[in-house]
Amino acid sequence: DHHMILPRIRQLDEGAVNRIAAGEVVERPASAVKELVENALDAQATRVTIDIADGGRTLIRVTDDGHGIDANDLPLALSRHATSKIDGSDLLNIHSFGFRGEALPSLGAVGRLTITSRATGASEAATIHVNGGRIAPARPAALRGGTVVELRDLFHATPARLKFLKSERSETMAVGDAIRRLAMAEPSVAFTLRDVSEGGDRVLFRADACASLADRLATVLGRDFAENALSIDAEREGFRLTGHAALPTYSRGNAVHQYLFVNGRPVRDRMLTGALRGAYMDVLARDRHAVAALFVTCDPVLVDCNVHPAKTEVRFRDAGIVRGLIVSGLRHALAGAGHRASTTVAD
Ligand code: ADP
Ligand code: MG
């Protein structure tokens, strides 16, 4: 018999939808920082400054000198699936960090978000504020150019998420890691990360505009890395591998210093890290890890970066080619430097 009440289907309101999306896009302060800095880079900024307080929990402020947002577009920037970066006709041909139009509405759903911007050529700036998904009308503001995005009290609207945050120290470290990755992706942009917590104003990371990737890697990973790294340049069937990989003698006890990029985007990908491990297999002890910053580039149609809302995962049309390229490209470079894989030494 049918005593149960038939569940009816309802449309969730925009606030709930944005909070759900925020769960995927903004895992922790570092993911908010990543989204905001990517927006600055997409706006052609040459200088990006990131201020955080309490590991990003109470304040994240990203200031850029990019092209800004037209005052009339400010409400749209906060609305879901609204973007200036793609027109939706070709999701396989993406040249910007952003394209989903989800970051700002998500951040506005889980924190107090204020965007102040002055578009190139505009006579004045405007500011808009959103809190818990409620958008206040845009107002005129004072700003000489570029954009300032301020996110206060992240997750105050979602206490469950707040509880999952780690110590201030580890959230700050994760923010630093996200910025170092983007700094490696864009050597010509100047980056400054400051901790502006109550009672302490200090620079945590700084990279001036660099003329080359090598210079930027030396800034971010240190002169030691630069002096112990091989320059990589290999190609296979439409994929190119460039970057720098350290000699086995400069290995580490963990894999945190492996930076991988696909078409300029920092990614975390098992296949790529697996290939890196495979390349060093014969020259590194099991508990040692290579240090490397490697860039895979290809026609955007050969890789899908729309796998997850955080955009850090990718799917290659042919992963086997990319794996082979990494393994052979690195082994070749290592062999050239006298570090031969045991199999090669034998023959
Ligand atoms: P997406 O980056 O995927 O387009 P976002 O929600 O991150 O989505 O941003 C929405 C829109 O707001 C962007 O498409 C862009 O037009 C604008 N925008 C956001 N941040 C900036 C910025 N720092 N400078 C200029 N425009 C920005
Ligand atoms: Mg974005």
TrEMBL record:
It comes from the Bacteria. GO terms for biological process: mismatch repair. One of its GO terms (cellular component) is mismatch repair complex. GO terms for molecular function: ATP binding; ATP hydrolysis activity; ATP-dependent DNA damage sensor activity; mismatched DNA binding. Residues 217-335 form the DNA mismatch repair protein S5 domain. Keywords: DNA damage, DNA repair. This protein is involved in the repair of mismatches in DNA. It is required for dam-dependent methyl-directed DNA mismatch repair. May act as a 'molecular matchmaker', a protein that promotes the formation of a stable complex between two or more DNA-binding proteins in an ATP-dependent manner without itself being part of a final effector complex. Belongs to the DNA mismatch repair MutL/HexB family. This is DNA mismatch repair protein MutL. The chain holds residues 5 to 351 of 596 of the full protein.
